[in-house]
Amino acid sequence: xxxxxxxxxxxxxxxxxxxxxxxxxxxxxxxxxxxxxxxxxxxxxxxxxxxxxxxxxxxxxxxxxxxxxxxxxxxxxxxxxxxxxxxxxxxxxxxxxxxxxxxxxxxxxxxxxxxxxxxxxxxxxxxxxxxxxxxxxxxxxxxxxxxxxxxxxxxxxxxxxxxxxxxxxxxxxxxxxxxxxxxxxxxxxxxxxxxxxxxxxxxxxxxxxxxxxxxxxxxxxxxxxxxxxxxxxxxxxxxxxxxxxxxxxxxxxxxxxxxxxxxxxxxxxxxxxxxxxxxxxxxxxxxxxxxxxxxxxxxxxxxxxxxxxxxxxxxxxxxxxxxxxxxxxxxxxxxxxxxxxxxxxxxxxxxxxxxxxxxxxxxxxxxxxxxxxxxxxxxxxxxxxxxxx
Amino acid sequence: xxxxxxxxxxxxxxxxxxxxxxxxxxxxxxxxxxxxxxxxxxxxxxxxxxxxxxxxxxxxxxxxxxxxxxxxxxxxxxxxxxxxxxxxxxxxxxxxxxxxxxxxxxxxxxxxxxxxxxxxxxxxxxxxxxxxxxxxxxxxxxxxxxxxxxxxxxxxxxxxxxxxxxxxxxxxxxxxxxxxxxxxxxxxxxxxxxxxxxxxxxxxxxxxxxxxxxxxxxxxxxxxxxxxxxxxxxxxxxxxxxxxxxxxxxxxxxxxxxxxxxxxxxxxxxxxxxxxxxxxxxxxxxxxxxxxxxxxxxxxxxxxxxxxxxxxxxxxxxxxxxxxxxxxxxxxxxxxxxxxxxxxxxxxxxxxxxxxxxxxxxxxxxxxxxxxxxxxxxxxxxxxxxxxx
Lengths: 389, 389
Hints:
The structure is a homodimer. By secondary structure, chain A is of the alpha+beta class. The first copy, chain A, folds into two domains: 9-259, L-amino peptidase D-ALA esterase/amidase; 267-385, Ubiquitin-like (UB roll) (Roll). The first copy, chain A, has ten helices and 15 strands. The first copy, chain A, has helices at residues 50-58, 79-97, 118-131, 136-145, 195-208, 239-259, 278-290, 292-299, 305-313, 378-385, and strands at residues 9-14, 26-31, 37-42, 66-70, 104-108, 154-159, 165-171, 184-189, 224-229, 267-275, 328-331, 334-338, 341-342, 355-361, 367-374. Chain A has a six-stranded mixed sheet with strand order 13-12-11-14-10-15. In chain A, helix 2 packs parallel to helix 3 (118-131) and helix 5 runs parallel beside helix 6. The interface between A and B is large, with 66 and 66 residues.
């Protein structure tokens, strides 16, 4: 049920003193091969943390053997010195594992603008290497070590029809409280695949899972999703089977991020149908998912469809063609808006479940798209106003 | 100090029972000429309230004599019946004032998706007509009648060098709590100007004042800014002088909206300099102003510059070219970020004043731009989660 579910992987999670709480804060995931296939997707923020800059060039050849991850510091906006820290971390781990530094990817999460305590981090890397194991417990400890404000560790695994396995771990205190150093994901598989197939599977999976979770429109400087393939099962897996396995694990982990949004009291699924294109549907869904007035209303158990319609109206017509007079909105199954106007009585809507379903019919085409988000709560404000103090 | 400061205008504000509190809720502003010049700017939301649809076509000829405004209901998403209600309101007021319905503009503010109680509204319009006066008190009562969650009425006036006067009133509970039916503004002048000059002055003024207030990125279905010119001073005013007068009154009213954001504890001025163009500067300023993590940090008196830099990094390079490694950020005068990395100690920043100044230097060009916003607070969440319940 974690990165060690797939054969050919060892992992560890240790406490190195980066977190003031004494909790685990350094994780290491190692592929023992025989393959060293790797793919990765990174944040599109132009301000990229040092570990993202390092890992992007290190994985460019489609190969990696290890990932060293730390919580307790994002190593973002730390200048050339911060990049040197990430480079040095990779070299340190590589030396210990008898690898090239280019085969070691680095991930960090925590506060921006603070240098990492390198002595503690490198000592933690050594301790993690010493603790490496292919057990389920070791995989869980790695997942624990990357937690920040997460209340639970997030892991997933699936066995493909061919018998190959895909496992994974993720961190992210929901996407509602991403703290700008939000989402780190490591997915492993023992399938025999090449780098191009791994890359295609990972990009396809993230586009329909992690990319569709959007709680507060704040894009991280550190987001990283990594796929490592060890080939240890000896089972050759086709592109479609791998894509489906990676997608399934990604979907499970993405849903776990939404469910653990600490500040949140509702998980909100925005589904837009009858759009002229998937992009148009996603643009409308994203605008609704990002509207603070919609999110605050959901916190108040208020099916305020006027705010949903108004958010949809903010999307330019060139992006999502539709006639506002044909809009229909269902909240938790009740059609509160019909033909752009008043529908069923909003008092019929039961807003008490944690999961809120918002369905918007644009009446313009046959395409659809969905986004997951959370509500805007007092706890969100509290958590994010007190983070660095 | 209100719409009656300019000669040739009468106004009134009465209680018609649209608000459950019994407060004033219907306002009327009438130009007695000799001119009937008018210009207006409306929300760009594709979901447009019935009064916006009515007023847009009514003012298309550059002429209007009266504005009837109500709080207690936005008349948005109310279908053909809602439009008929706005039309009927204009006709009712026109009959009483012996005008054409096309010379009467209509504004509404309040909850979306609810029909207006027309009997109460029309009776209120009659009462307002009976109470019309050119006194300062009448102008203030009109400003009071358009308040929703505003804690104070907002008025302004200035005398131009030529002796002509520009006055105005606005409503909006800050822009932080726009309730989607946010901003109504009526500006009056006794200057002798033509419709094209009035239109240019109003568009120029809104572009650099009201359009630069952005508290939560939620665009209203009802936003309307109207300029009426009576010509009653007999003073011919050139385009530049009128533009400056309208801009000054607009700036005063826009700043008053920010200052009265009920949920807010800080007014935040985001100034972006050294951009390649004004549009680029505004795009970066707007992204920062809309970032919930930045806004929540300011609520917590936390000069969290990492979140500011990360928000800037979300703007696509095609929109705002700059090198993240050259970014500099000052918060209340302290340069907390230099060359994209750590600058002065953030503990040097005094965040206790209500006004917070965020200055971002992109190091890319000579253009600049600014946006006003507010912080994200518990009161914002409270107010917006309980609005329609």
